[in-house]
Amino acid sequence: MHSDDVNPTDATVNSTADAAAETEVSAAIAGVGAIPATPAAHAVPPAANRRMVRAQGQSNGVHKQREVSAPVPAASGGAARDGAHREGAMRFDETGKVSLDHIYTQPDPHAYFSTLRRLDYVIPQLARPFFSQLIEERRARLRRPPTVLDVGCSYGVNAALLRCGLTMDDMYDRYGERDGEAPDRAVLLARDRELVQARQSRATPRFVGLDSSRPAVSYARAAGFLDDAVCADLEERDPTEAERTVLAGADFVVSTGCIGYVTERTIDRIASASERSDRPWMAHFVLRMFSFDPFTEVLDALGYDTVHVEGVFPQRRFASAQEQQQVLDTLAAVGVDPRGLESDGWLYARLHVSRPRHAPARRTARAGHPADSLIGRPG
Ligand SMILES: C[S@@+](CC[C@H](N)C(=O)[O-])C[C@H]1O[C@@H](n2cnc3c(N)ncnc32)[C@H](O)[C@@H]1O
């Protein structure tokens, strides 16, 4: 990082714990080739996340959190501990996962975070140091703050974590009930805007989002988490010219919890919005039940190499025993061994990082920069 590039988006980077985490992240990103979780890795349960952490570690291939305040006992059958069952009959999508569509389209993030808190949804937190690391690499090469496009940005979740240094626990507290009452949207927005302004500096990356939920995108824009956004379902159609312009501005495309809702069609349309010489890097956290092969193929045709980062990442608890069984069935159908992972009550994701193969020299700001060692080649 340049000395003048103090990045408010990752205020944790100088702490001892985070220095260690950064090293681990670098090592993980540098790993080439998919390494399936070993049986030994299965023995390590994901840390409970009632207190989110500022650093993460890896043990036997399972990326987990450190500094967890108190372990949360797994609910029987691996189901969520409360809440989800009280919501009445659950609906499931065709992959076997519980349908959470109703919480993606509320005017503010209260229902989203209240529901996901009960499921210990943790993946944006675990993704943060990886995204931060790659943002810093892009910054070093471009010699300017990069533009980050979050696919399936929802209420601006990854942008909030990255630009404001928030944790998922912060998010759960921010949007939780006050004295038993749902918070007021205007109050939430005013507080978010204040936070974004307080954390903004010349070094802050630009954050743009893509999501099919207009209420979520509107909130993220109004709060200031996102500098620009595309509200569209690019599974269904090509981007308009205006949308293409926003997408083409991306230097780095990220996602958590979105692949599966979107397929390689959306990713193809995003990458194709840019000239071949100017395509963005990508980092997607993807549930193990979804094969990344079709994405790798599409991206390969567009000139990308894809690295499958070693290890697995806990995403959330199953919402019910029924959801768990359905997902286990899906995993069996696609030949993924769930033992010690999904069979123990959590959904797990993998990280896939894709970068253009033949980037022109002008994109390589400083040949021989230490960041090269993370990715093995200029890009
Ligand atoms: C599980 S949420 C993940 C949100 C956020 N990335 C996170 O990790 O907290 C999935 C998001 O994908 C969005 N989504 C679903 N289908 C989509 C599509 N076809 N195009 C864009 N976004 C979509 C939903 O609206 C929702 O915001």
UniProtKB/TrEMBL annotation:
Residues 55-87, 358-379 are annotated as: Disordered. Residues 68-79 have a biased composition (Low complexity). It comes from the Bacteria. It comes from Frankia canadensis. This is Methyltransferase type 12.
